[in-house]
Amino acid sequence: MNGNKETKKGLSIKELEGFAKKHHFEVFFCLFFFLAGVFGLLLWSPAWSVILGTIGAIVGTLFPAKMHQMSHSLMGFVFRQDRNTQLILAAIALVLAVFIPPLVFLLIGLHAGKSMHATARDESSNK
């Protein structure tokens, strides 16, 4: 033994809960994307995810203002709800990620197109 010092292996449940509470957005979105990726490969053809992601990116690039308004409206709706309703909405989103993963890739594409458009516009105005 190392004297009176005990070596710690792994994470405790309390540490894991503390991390999840502190980083709840990151944990939710990583789980959301992970589930969509895994179940997109297992239950659906990856081609559907690529096609819908591409369509989303094109639409997000062509209509960035509408995408910005839609995403803020959606997040505003979620955060106006009480905590229990937010948890129910998160569970519904995770179930959708499992059963309809191409929908998740459509949303990723929409936000990617909007973000790339905004970044290109910002960088081109800096010259």
Oligomer status:
single chain
**Shape summary:** globular
Beta strands, count: 0
- Helical fraction equals over 70%
Number of contiguous helices: 6
Structural class by SSE content = mainly alpha
User: What value does the Rg take, in angstroms?
Assistant: 19 Å
Low-pLDDT stretches are none
Distance between the termini: 63 Å
Strand residue content: under 5%
> What number of structural domains do the residues give?
1
Provide the residue-averaged pLDDT. Answer: 90
Largest sheet features: none
Order of helices and strands: HHHHHH
Give a summary of the structure in a few sentences.
With 127 residues, the chain is mainly α.
Task: Give a written overview of the molecule.
The protein is an all-alpha fold and 127 residues long. 83% of the residues lie in helices and 0% in strands. The chain has one domain (17-122). The protein is built from 6 helices and no strands. The protein is globular and about 60 Å long.
Features:
83% helix, 127 residues, 0% strand, mainly alpha
